[in-house]
Amino acid sequence: ADCFRLQESHPFPSDCIFPLVNMEKIKVGLEMCNSWTDPPIQIMVIIAAMPISAIVSLLLAYYVSWFTLPVIPLGIWVYYNFIYLRTPPADTTKYLRFNDPTLKKMFSNRKIPICMLYEAYILEQVDFVGDVYDALLHRDEYLCYRPTWCLIKFLIEQVLPSKSSSFHGKKDDAKQIHLHYDRGNDFFNAFLGESMIYTCAVYHGLDQSLETAQENKCSLICDKLQVKPGDNYLDIGCGWGTLARHAVQKYGAKGMAVTLSKEGAAWCREQNQKAGLTEEQLKICNHDYRDIVGTKCFERISSIEMAEHVGLANFPSYLAEVKQLLTDQGMFLMQVSGLRKGSNWEDVQWGLFMSKYIFPGADASTPLNWYVKQMESAGLEVRSVETIGRHYSHTIHGWYDNWMKNREKVLPKYGENLYRLWTFFLAWSVIASGQGSATCYQLLAHKNTYKFDRDVFCGIPKIKHH
Questions:
Q1: To which H or E segment does residue 446 belong?
Q2: Which of 64-73, 151-160, 234-243, 315-324 has the lowest mean pLDDT?
Q3: pLDDT at position 72, please?
Q4: N or C: which end of the chain has fewer CB within 10 A?
Q5: Beta-carbon neighbour count of residue 359 at 10 Å?
Q6: Closest by alpha carbon to 272, among 305, 246, 300, 298?
Q7: How far apart are CA 64 and CA 58, in angstroms?
Q8: Rg (CA), the chain
Q9: Pairing mode, if any, of strands 282-286 and 254-259?
Q10: What's the whole-number mean pLDDT along residues 303-313?
Q11: Burial class (CB within 10 angstroms; exposed 0-12, middle 13-18, buried 19+) of 449
């Protein structure tokens, strides 16, 4: 079958799905829930209660007296500041050093809400006593996970077009990728290391280095896809192109790698030149995945932790595009960062921190069942699923160690606040992925047709699960 530009034939282009895209974070929250009492729904109820309280205040003012207008808002303010923020007692100063007098007065002897802590740490109002990761290992001694006004405000803003990170038209995605991935290759090299791979590695023993584990992951993906010499291989959202180069150099594939990042594309081309790879062997494309055009189809397609960024509303059209680009006997491997089903308050707080500060717009990060359903609905048969989330904890720990070692290289160009943000992000993420708050899935799929030769999975050497 010929491949074509999907957005020209799809009846609902992503740029036009305003009502659906506007609900992205609500839908993600619902996907995380097992019951109506789970934290995401409690947050939704709190937000829904705010306009109701405003309406009640206006009705009281109109029917009783205008002097009653401030009663409800004032009551909420008093409750929030003097009761809600009166957290349980704790020896907080054992792990935190307060530079801000107000915060010290409020929380030196009480648990501090984590969303207040990370904002204060980024702004240099609080310091950790000793290593950040080590301090977070003891977080339950001095932290609580109750949502605060700054978090509720962020979620309310997500329904506003001027503030929301949940819009996924081409211009929106290009802007988000530019803001994150085009900071500078030196910034990412400071924690990713030599391999420049910003995705979960796979360890064959905890004595292995980060670089070896990343090479393991690249080989695992190629082995699952059964990449052979001469296969046309497409990597969607290729980052710095390391996986695509691996498929070309180690497995003899003919590659195409697509990224929205200009800095990433420049790095890819530079590395290809150093490796002596021609454009015919590995073509680097700097454009949106929706702009993969031409009549060429691919025997093997990978998408490694890119799909989270397309958004929930765009996911069906994204998978439809993959299906169109895949040959009838082709295979597709999607690696995605997911979230725990039935998330508690700590899980939700981590997810919202990531959404606010690290990956705005990465709304298609969900529990596993949603991805399987989407792939099957798109006409793909899921061949295998593997959870490699624990490997992510060790991967990010390697990134954290690199980042801490490169502090003096990062600070002059990127400043103290960004350095602190990334320190907290990496330290907390080691813990989150280690305990299952966040995880990572590899899903291998192919077209769900009678003609697909399923015998390719029979008799081949068994791929070790990790």
A1: strand 438-447
A2: 151-160
A3: 92
A4: N
A5: 18
A6: 246
A7: 10
A8: 24
A9: parallel
A10: 90
A11: exposed
Q: Is 131 helix (H, G, I), strand (E, B) or coil?
A: coil
Pair of tokens at residue 250: 């180690």
Residue 401: C-alpha distances to residues 271, 377, 391, 406 (Å): 25, 41, 16, 9
Locus of tokens 């803001």? 179
The rounded mean pLDDT for the chain is 88
Coil, helix or strand for 332? Answer: strand
User: Which uninterrupted H or E stretch holds 328?
Assistant: strand 326-339
Helix, strand, or coil (residue 234):
strand
- Mean pLDDT on 200-217: 97
Average pLDDT over residues 415-423: 95
**Is the pLDDT confidence value at 279 over 50?**
yes
| Strand locations in 78-177 (E) | 96-98, 112-113, 126-128, 143-144
pLDDT digits (tens, 9 = 90+) for 102-131: 999 999 999 999 999 999 999 999 999 999
Instruction: With H, G, I as helix, E, B as strand and everything else as coil, classify residue 391.
Output: helix
pTM, entire model? 0.88
Report whether 27 contacts 312 (CB < 8 A): yes
What's the rounded Cα separation, in Å, for the pair 197 and 379?
A: 30
- What is the rounded distance in angstroms from the CA atom of residue 268 to the CA atom of residue 258? 10
